[in-house]
Fold these 4 entries.
Entry 1:
Amino acid sequence: MRDPAGLGASAQPTDRGASQARPSDAAMNRVVFLLALSVLINYIDRSNLSIAAPLLQDELRLSNTQLGALLSAFFWVYALLQVPAGWLVDRFDVKWVFAIGFFLWSIATAVTGVLHGFAALLIVRMILGIGESVAFPSFSKILSTYFTERRRGFANAMLMVGTSLGPALGILVGGSVVGAFGWRPFFLALGLGALLWLPLWIVWMPVRRPVAVSHASSVIGMKSILRQRSAWGTCFGQFSINYFLYFLVTWLPSYLKRGRGMSLGEIGRYGFFLFLMSAVGAAVWGKLADQWIKAGATPTLVRKTGLVGGSAMVGLMLALIVMSDGWAFITLLAFTGIALGVACSNSWAVTQTLAGPLAAGRWAGFQNFIGNFAGWIAPILTGFLVDRTGSFASAFFVTAAMAWMGAVAWGLVVGPVEPVDWDLVAKRSRIAGMPAASASLP
């Protein structure tokens, strides 16, 4: 088998590196449930400020500039800490790294409900970003260590179900709760209620046992990862996925209101509908992907079919949505959600296979670092295009083009979805550092 960067690949199975005995399937199913629940909480917590923004802005007399700073503060810290977070989960037991991160972001959410000043809110949003920064590197570390290739499809899909249902429930339920009880009880209930997750995690998540590792583990740094062509392919692909995901999360409500003239109730229903279909698409494809691999298909064929096909379909649906009406619009919205789920459910599975347990945290951290630049660019560029043209059409077409570029990255830049042979990478690194005479020795 070939390494994506042409360095040579392991002849071992795709589950290479998971040297410690895996817990039972039932035990790991409980872990998947907790991971999916944690990512649902994660996405509600990162978007809850936008739900409460109108009331919070009026009560604290914040300017639009201050509100914009609060809404973006999370992403500043979250993106910048992805690489350090990846190092943490590779260096220490991921069970406790993730538990500390979860505790930190839950407390930050709860504390938000008792603050009264702009500076304090800005700081607590940054703390939220610090806590959540360990999430996706931890997910990749856990799934690459404890799950075989033929079980990662559905496990990753469950994470994407949480990713989809978080914004959906935030829009549908969060608005009603804030309207009925106010924004402060909303934050307190979310943050303190989430802490009930922690005891289950401590009981159900296995402790990492010390294992004998090869010399490769001591030389896998970011430089070794960035020499892999496939690492850059996954980064560009993740940027594309995040671009159309954040475009829909941040601008779909405004498009439905201003571009379609819908009421607030209709906006909530249609927004929930799209992300619900995304959850369905992820769950169904994840199960089918596992069955396909069990039947003998290669991970390369299965993962790239989902990523290339899903991304290309998202682009096509977005390009057609702005030209549709009536039932055609609703149908295209449903297929956009399904394609979103199919694409999102595969991206981290590719990383987990390529990086393996030795480097999954750092690779996923860098991939998420690059990918989250889309969270900065997509909302700003969309607003600029709408202001410049007076229409959402150009913003939809740009997002469609971004989705198609992602399909190219996943299909052509990412190589075969096979584990990188880190032992061979380490060996070549040692040879490259030898004097010429020594390097020529057998």
Entry 2:
Amino acid sequence: MHEMIILICTSQIVNQLYRGIIHWNQNRFIASVGDGSFDRMLLRPLSVIFQANTGSVDFTCPISALCPLIILITQISALGVDVTGAGILLYVLFVINGVVVLSAFMMLLYSFAFRFIKVDGMSNLYYLMMDIADRPREMFSREFMYGFVFLIPAIPLANAPAAALIGKADLPLLLMTLGVGLLFPIASYIAVKTGLKRYTNASS
């Protein structure tokens, strides 16, 4: 039970960090493509992807992450495991990796705005991911597990940092998580650059 709660709390921490730092800015990006204000982003001497993911910060969400963090600490104490400095460092690293993966995956989906304009329905995949993220990977068959790692990367969001924290992470899980942390940013970069060419053509 304690391990399950640690996993759920980790999922909530990743989710709140994403919502507070990235989510609103990505929604603004989608709206700008639809209403034409996206042209302003093109005029700025900054990467479009950087602008689409940064800007305003909703501080209530990172603050909200303190609640699951406190619960997580109490559950570690109840579990009776010795958390090492390396475990904490890996936890922070893989939480950041989870935020990056979630942000990159959603950016990959939102890049379809250049083609279809209306992509609001794709946000449903975000809720699906967060629903799967707080479930232990052991409950999935091998085929589904790989699908939720490399197609819809829900498992890397919380399973890897939670397992690393309590010393139960295996090398394949950590390597897959780091691999996904590289794969999806690259894929989203390519998707946005491709969509950007389509948008430029449409504007001209």
Entry 3:
Amino acid sequence: MKILLNTFRDQIRRECHAPPSFYPEDLDAWYEASWQSHRSHIRAAGPEEQVMARSFADEVAAALADLSPDFRTVVLLADIEGYSYREIADLVECPLGTVMSRLARGRKMLRETLREYARKHGLIEG
């Protein structure tokens, strides 16, 4: 009876610490819902903030949309959702090294895509 009880407790503990279920095909729907939520938040800001935020948000959304789905998934899970590398590897079912590589390359692609926008608006020099 004690073994059964301990096994049950261990199972409950594992379920409590397990990351939530994630299906890569649901990422686009989540991204779209998140984007709509962001747009409604922009409407609540003042006029100047609306213009800047909308412009920046559109640029970032376009840059994210240009990424291939593999890179976009990893970047969104890491930088927006805050998952650890190990959790992302489990969610997308690929090795940890692949997640790290995709994240580094995805961030680099975003940085290159958004560099001109940042220069134009004085966010970086050069």
Entry 4:
Amino acid sequence: MPAPFDTTPNLPPPLVSVIVRSMDRPSLAQALQSVIQQSHRPIELVLVNAKGQAHADMPVQVADLMLRQVAAEDGQPLPRARAAQLGLQAASGEWALFLDDDDELMPDHLSRLVQAGLQHAEAPAVYADVDMGCRVEGVWQLQHRFAADFDPVRLLFENYLPIHAVLFRREVALRHARFDADFDLFEDWDFWLQLAQVGAFVRVPGVSARYMATPVAGRSDVFEDSPAARTARERLFEKWRQRLSPGLYAQALQRLQSLHRQAGQQQAELMDLRRGHAEQAAVLQARESELADYAPRLAAREDELASARLQREAQQMILTAREQELRNALAAIEAQRELLAHRERESREGVEYASSLRETLAHREREIADATQQLADLRSALAAGQQTLIQRDLELASSRAELATLHAEKPLQALARTLRSKNKPHATRT
């Protein structure tokens, strides 16, 4: 097992150098913006002018990033491998990551990888999963996902590590790996093979970067089978065939044998499937012949079915009409019920009103009887009063007569009457 690298705990976050080989494409601004938006700090941005003297100025402000711009001394364009090596030598971070000027990082890409690197002191590199695709009218279209565990044998015949997926220790890379100027295609694959000789890479599951493919081709150089790609693969395989250790060479051959056996087994299964398909095709043809015989009867059945459907539709129309009539009758009955209920309410209210009138009439009759009695009493009292008044009138008339008599008497007569009255014995007036 390789010795662990120096990862002293409780230190400030390490400096990460992001190396961008730029051909001054329009996508450069978006790529740099994805670096600026990283949650990890500090970051050193190393911009390598691979286009040459015609490269434009920086398309964005790099905010708090440390910027280092690199170009060829003669101002000429740089091949891919030479541009990568120049950027790596110019970087100063403890960790480094390459980013092509048409790819993008998600905001947590560096922070996830740095944390994994600090936790795995023995690993020369860590890598995340990457989505490959393109934007169609602003909508991301996924075409492939690079999400494989580290396999050094598989890496011998397939590059499954996009260049911006891998964060590696810069000093380790400078000591043990170098971009081969003989490769202007698959130079990153060759670089990963060199770095993998130091130790196993650590995968950090989860997508945190995007590999931009052209909408037309929609494929990475990893999957291309063009003449240039085939030539580059042959040269890469020849280079690493000479470098393979006996053990790794044996593993590669065993893997090849296993894949060959799997391919043979799958080929046999495919032949079985093809035979089964041929048998099913024969059965299907026989069934089709039988179906051809059934076709006239089926047509007749279809005619009968069509006629039955017409009858059913007619009956359905009649049924619909009957249902409508029934709904109308039910609605009329309901209206009559409501009218009857209304009449019953009116009748109850009339009865209640008549009862109220009877009570009022009885009350008025009692009042009339009381008034009649009072009137009779008043009449009796009036008759008694009149009788008394007549008596008083008689007494008054008598008094007036006596008074008139007294007025008519002469003094001597009055005196004699007075004397006579005094001499009379007292009598009680009744």
